[in-house]
Amino acid sequence: MAQQPPYINPEDVDKIVEDWLASEYGDVLDDETDFVQTRATRIIAARLRDAVEDEFPFALVTGPAGCSKTVTTRHFLRYVREQWPWLNTAWIHAQPNYEPNALLEALALNLYITRTRRFRDLLHTVHTQLSAKRMVAVVDEAQRMPRESFEVLKYLADETSSTFILICTEDFAPQIRRWRDIESRIGVVAEAEPVSPEELIEMPMLAGLPKASRQKIYELTGGVMRDVLRLVKQIDRTIARNADKGLSRATFTVKAVVAVSQKLNLAGGSQ
């Protein structure tokens, strides 16, 4: 007779899962000077890791502009190269109206394949190489690709177990997911989002600023990290140039934050 598993309170189950996921989020990417990790970027990296490990054909990264979709995925691709050095990798920045020929040539370039004039010959060569060693490739600005380019990626993913990470704007994501043959191959969806006020206020990058000034930074940026980084850089520049007058982070007032913000176009918050 099979032994019955011990009873666990459903609330305890929820906490166990939440704690495990929280630990998973924190161990994929390292903090670097040009990359500020947030809860959202940790979730993105963890989900992309799952996509690579499970050999999903597609992973979709979407969300508002300025919320670290591209920079997080770029750092994740570096992580892939370190963790799975035997895999082919590629970073592709889609140009406007990124036709299948251009896409295939970019893949070939990353594989050090000599380009040929005939599309099918090049497709065959890329397919052969990926069949021997699968690829993890990122396509940034995927909304610039026509439907036919997605067909090329779908074919290569199906045939070679390669994983293609698609970064796109939040308004284009529903369009991709309306294509049922593409949607059915998307193993994970990772959504970038602005940082919450609670998380932003406690970030080390804002250390030393008065709490009211940190709250104003959130109000002005809406937690959009691109705007936060730009504003903090301007604040530190202002402090550095006026340090001899006693200016410091500790003395940087709300009014001073607002004054510095006027130099920037902060799209995420209110000015």
How would you characterize the overall build of this protein?
This protein is an alpha/beta fold and about 270 residues long. The protein has two domains: about 180 residues, P-loop containing nucleotide triphosphate hydrolases (Rossmann fold); about 60 residues, no CATH class. Helix content is about 50%, strand content about 10%. It has a five-stranded parallel β-sheet, sandwiched between helices. Strand 3, helix 6 and strand 4 form a beta-alpha-beta unit. The chain is globular and about 70 Å long. The mean pLDDT is about 85. InterPro entries: AAA_22, ExeA_AAA_ATPase_DNA-bind, P-loop_NTPase.
Assign the CATH topology of the largest domain. Rossmann fold
Which structural category do the helix and sheet elements fall into? alpha/beta
How many DSSP H or I helices?
12
State the order of secondary-structure elements, H for helix, E for strand: HHEHEHHEHEHHEHHHH
Would you identify the CATH architecture of the largest domain? Answer: 3-Layer(aba) Sandwich
Rg (C-alpha, Å): 22 Å
Which strand order do you get reading across the main beta sheet? Answer: 2-3-4-1-5
InterPro entries: AAA_22, ExeA_AAA_ATPase_DNA-bind, P-loop_NTPase
GO molecular function: ATP hydrolysis activity
Domain ORC1/DEAH AAA+ ATPase: 58-173
Organism: Meiothermus hypogaeus NBRC 106114
Salient structural properties:
single chain; 271 residues; alpha/beta; Rossmann fold; 5-stranded parallel sheet; 12 helices
